[in-house]
Amino acid sequence: MADSAQAQELVYLVTGGCGFLGEHVVRMLLQQEPRLRELRIFDLHLGPWLEELKTGPVQVTAIQGDVTQAHEVAAAVAGAHVVIHTAGLVDVFGRASPETIHAVNVQGTKNVIEACVQTGTQFLVYTSSMEVVGPNIKGHPFYRGNEDTPYEAVHRHPYPRSKALAEQLVLEANGRKGLRLGGRLFRAIPASVEHGRVYVGNVAWMHVLVARELQERAALMGGQVYFCYDKSPYKSYEDFNMEFLGPCGLRLVGTRPLLPYWLLMLLAFLNALLQWLLRPLLLYAPLLNPYTLAMANTTFTVSTDKAQRHFGYEPLFSWEESRTRTVRWMQTMDSSAQ
Ligand SMILES: NC(=O)c1ccc[n+]([C@@H]2O[C@H](COP(=O)([O-])OP(=O)(O)OC[C@H]3O[C@@H](n4cnc5c(N)ncnc54)[C@H](O)[C@@H]3O)[C@@H](O)[C@H]2O)c1
Ligand SMILES: C[C@@H](CO)CCC[C@@H](C)[C@H]1CC[C@H]2[C@@H]3[C@H](O)C=C4C[C@@H](O)CC[C@]4(C)[C@H]3CC[C@]12C
Q: In this protein, which residues make up the domain named 3-beta hydroxysteroid dehydrogenase/isomerase (predicted)?
């Protein structure tokens, strides 16, 4: 728990607070934000683990709600000093309709912004996504770029489109008055295709830090975009995954893709066709579709220190700690699944 020497007077709201990132943000706030008086956790699905948080000095308020419902959002936001908006629908597999993705990611964000404006919450931190930038539909690589690197962001897929629209809304609102195994995997992606990954604990820490520093440095930080980053190595999507799957007993076969790209693309399109044909009967949402294959085969990594320069961000977890914690998390997930 955070040091209680400082006055506890702040009310934080975390939307999507029971999600993968949201839970880390919630726990990080309780550990790292000494000024916290109340922590509101707003989510469509509340987790049972929230109960264990209610024994500490900070008032933890669980709110079951839907960001697409403006009145529910307004009620949750009212009186909060800071809102960290992570609630979102992450779907590149075709599980949800484009309309649903838009309703949650765009309209939901609109509702959060309007609630902040209407109830006078000055500080809003929004969790965007690398896909707001790319890879674009032309497959242009983004090689170790930063927030200022020019890149033609062109999207047709519902998820990146929704994230780009939502991010734009947030930026436009800035300044508004009145916001295991022993298996083998067969390489399918060239090892040379770098993909950016960041440990969730460092992403959560960056959210907490930016929310705190934004209150003191609004002139500098307001309206800014910050890439999340840490010391995670630059690797292909599959090689990076092996950092965690290897210790769990899996092995990646092949130094080069075992199947030619055209065959993977054919399989991806067959999956998309099957998804379309089966939709009236059942939800078929495989990992491999034209969009995910293009994502996995397009170099997209960042190299920046903007967050360090603007608000002193340094990753809280080293690469070694991040890897150890992730492997441990995977092993607990595997044992609970058995
Ligand atoms: N996981 C990633 O790799 C990644 C990378 C970049 C950005 N993001 C962004 O981070 C945010 C969190 O992603 P995550 O990986 O934790 O996903 P997640 O699915 O684990 O968490 C999302 C949370 O939002 C909640 N939610 C969904 N719809 C809601 C609604 N209508 N009303 C209220 N709550 C709702 C879900 O119940 C869930 O708890 C998202 O905005 C996502 O776009 C995720
Ligand atoms: C072709 C397969 C052989 O192994 C590999 C398919 C991998 C894909 C399922 C993933 C490749 C890139 C991933 C996405 C990327 O890491 C960034 C994302 C942004 C974030 O906002 C949400 C998750 C995701 C879209 C992520 C999803 C999984 C991939 C497409």
A: 13-184
